[in-house]
């Protein structure tokens, strides 16, 4: 028998008052992506017929963050409980569908877990549970003599004996849409919260003879909900640990300390790559073979070629780094930077919108912006490109084999031809011909006895 079509309802109407934030709770981030984004990422591999997101007051910000055409947005004008929330979406779901209910503040559930939950509900009802050492605050799972779920009792409504049960409700469940519509109509608010509990549908299903099958999650972190900053931080660490383990296991990445690694995007690595402590990876980052990343480094939306080494305390954003480059320590590569094979960018150097040729070196205390630097160029310490005239940016062109002395100011637009030498301390405003020496120095005047006179 083929499986019925699947519709997914995501409960995302919680106010999140305990977050104490102007940002809606479901838009709080875990590993650089919103919690709702994580939930949708886990839901889509199930190939549902539809995804309905329930939002409440202030949902405009949530909708704006997800312009996805496959999402159906449903406004819950009054927050009257989970049962009421699901009821708002049911008019858009045919009776023949299975309904998978997810929570937007439970961001770490894996697609495989959801697939198992849906499969177990064919036919019938399934419920995702987990066993906790400390179940306080959660609804307890009640089982019948056959081991099936007979009901769920919330913490505030539970008897002392029921409160000793360690198996709890995660809020994730799968039910047939037609009977669910009937069960929701029978809900009432005669409970400690004064709300319409979706969980009361479980007891109704059991009483009607439906098999309510529990699917027990083996990892409590996978179903951890988030209501405050402390829980958000705990989920962040759990997610980072999961990502670190996957990178080490699946891609062979070497991590000096997996507990001090943060991935806020996607990372692909070649063979024999290593990342030291407290590195942050954001956006899409790709490392070739034998790449080494030093401690306290941030990489965002960049590629690093094989054999490249990034030393400590570097910041690299939207840059393309070639093979066998050496960067840092304390270097900043801003968007639009490209380094060719064997280029060197050293300590306290900033590069922006610049192409640095093969084997060229900018080793100390320099700023190179809006520049085209050829191969085997040496840029001395303290060199800056003066690329901005207060209104427009201008380009500095430096051809192959140029030597630029220390403390030099290159006032763009400027072209230094191949093989030229720029003397230390020069402020260069005019183009320099190939193989020429450009020097800008005033005559040094010495005044004998100056120090003695000052002491007097």
UniProtKB/TrEMBL annotation:
InterPro entries: Bifunctional_GlmU (IPR005882), GlmU-like (IPR050065), GlmU_C_LbH (IPR038009), GMPPB_C (IPR056729), Hexapep_transf_CS (IPR018357), MobA-like_NTP_Trfase (IPR025877), Nucleotide-diphossugar_trans (IPR029044), Trimer_LpxA-like_sf (IPR011004). This is Bifunctional protein GlmU. It is found in: Cytoplasm. Homotrimer. The keyword Ribosomal protein does not apply. Pathway: Nucleotide-sugar biosynthesis; UDP-N-acetyl-alpha-D-glucosamine biosynthesis; UDP-N-acetyl-alpha-D-glucosamine from N-acetyl-alpha-D-glucosamine 1-phosphate: step 1/1; Nucleotide-sugar biosynthesis; UDP-N-acetyl-alpha-D-glucosamine biosynthesis; N-acetyl-alpha-D-glucosamine 1-phosphate from alpha-D-glucosamine 6-phosphate (route II): step 2/2; Bacterial outer membrane biogenesis; LPS lipid A biosynthesis. Keywords: Acyltransferase, Cell shape, Cell wall biogenesis/degradation, Cytoplasm, Magnesium, Metal-binding, Multifunctional enzyme, Nucleotidyltransferase, Peptidoglycan synthesis, Repeat, Transferase. It comes from Spiribacter curvatus. In the N-terminal section; belongs to the N-acetylglucosamine-1-phosphate uridyltransferase family. In the C-terminal section; belongs to the transferase hexapeptide repeat family. Residues 230-250 are annotated as: Linker. Residues 1-229 are annotated as: Pyrophosphorylase. GO terms for biological process: cell morphogenesis; cell wall organization; lipid A biosynthetic process; peptidoglycan biosynthetic process; regulation of cell shape; UDP-N-acetylglucosamine biosynthetic process.
């Amino acid at each position: 028998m083929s499986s019925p079509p699947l519709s997914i309802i995501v409960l995302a109407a919680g106010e999140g008052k305990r977050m104490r934030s102007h940002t809606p709770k479901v838009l709080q981030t875990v590993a650089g992506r919103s919690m709702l984004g994580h939930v949708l990422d886990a839901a889509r591999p199930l190939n549902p017929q539809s995804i309905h997101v329930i939002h409440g007051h202030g949902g405009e910000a949530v909708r704006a963050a997800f312009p996805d055409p496959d999402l159906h947005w449903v406004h819950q004008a009054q927050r009257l409980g989970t049962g009421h929330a699901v009821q708002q979406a049911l008019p858009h779901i045919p009776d023949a569908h299975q309904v998978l209910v997810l929570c937007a503040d439970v961001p770490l559930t894996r697609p495989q877990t959801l697939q198992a939950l849906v499969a177990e509900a064919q036919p019938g009802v399934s419920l995702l549970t987990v066993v906790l050492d400390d179940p306080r605050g959660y609804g307890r799972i009640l089982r019948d003599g056959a081991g099936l779920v007979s009901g769920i009792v919330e913490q505030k409504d539970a008897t002392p004996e029921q409160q000793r049960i360690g198996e709890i409700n995660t809020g994730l469940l799968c039910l047939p849409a037609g009977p669910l519509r009937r069960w929701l109509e029978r809900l009432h608010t005669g409970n400690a919260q004064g709300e319409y509990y979706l969980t009361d549908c479980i007891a109704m299903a059991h009483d009607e003879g439906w098999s309510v099958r529990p699917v027990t999650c083996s990892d409590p972190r996978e179903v951890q909900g988030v209501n405050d900053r402390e829980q958000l931080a705990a989920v962040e660490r759990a997610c980072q640990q999961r990502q670190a383990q996957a990178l080490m296991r699946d891609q062979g990445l070497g991590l000096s300390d997996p507990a001090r690694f943060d991935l806020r995007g996607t990372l692909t690595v070649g063979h024999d790559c290593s990342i030291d402590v407290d590195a942050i990876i954001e956006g899409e980052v790709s490392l070739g073979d034998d790449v080494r990343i030093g401690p306290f480094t941030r990489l965002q939306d960049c590629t690093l070629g094989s054999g490249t080494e990034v030393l400590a305390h570097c910041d690299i954003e939207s840059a393309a780094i070639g093979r066998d480059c050496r960067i840092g320590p304390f270097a900043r590569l801003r968007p639009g930077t490209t380094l060719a094979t064997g280029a060197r960018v050293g300590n306290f150097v900033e590069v922006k919108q610049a192409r640095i040729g093969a084997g060229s070196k900018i080793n100390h205390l320099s700023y190179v912006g809006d520049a085209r630097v050829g191969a085997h160029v040496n840029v001395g310490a303290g060199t800056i490109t003066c690329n901005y005239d207060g209104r427009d940016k201008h380009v500095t062109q430096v051809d192959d084999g140029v030597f630029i002395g220390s403390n030099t100011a290159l006032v763009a637009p400027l072209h230094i031809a191949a093989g030229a030498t720029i003397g230390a301390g020069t402020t260069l405003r005019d183009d320099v011909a190939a193989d020429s020496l450009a020097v800008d120095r005033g005559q040094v005047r010495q005044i004998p006895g100056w120090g003695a006179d000052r002491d007097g």
